[in-house]
Amino acid sequence: MKRIWLEGPVFGSAALALLAGTCSAARAEPSAALIEAAKKEGELTIIAVPHDWCRYGDVIDAFKKDYPFLKLNELNPDAGSGDEIEAVKANKGGTGPQAPDVIDVGLSFGPSAKKDGLIQPYKVSNWDSIPDDQKDAEGYWYGDYYGVLAFEVNKDLVKNIPADWPDLLKPEYKDQVALDGDPRTSNESIQAVFASGLSATGGDIDKAADAGLHFFKQLNTAGNFVPASGGASTLALGTTPIVIRWDYLALGDRDTLKGNPDVAVVVPKTGIVAGVYVQAISAYAPHPNAAKLWMEHLYSDASQLTWLKGYCHPARFDDLVKRNVVPAELMQKLPPADNYAKALFPSLEQQGMAKDTITKQWDSVVGVNVTTN
Question: What domains, with CATH codes, occur in the chain?
Answer without folding.
Answer: 7-140+275-337 (3.40.190.10), 147-273+343-366 (3.40.190.10)
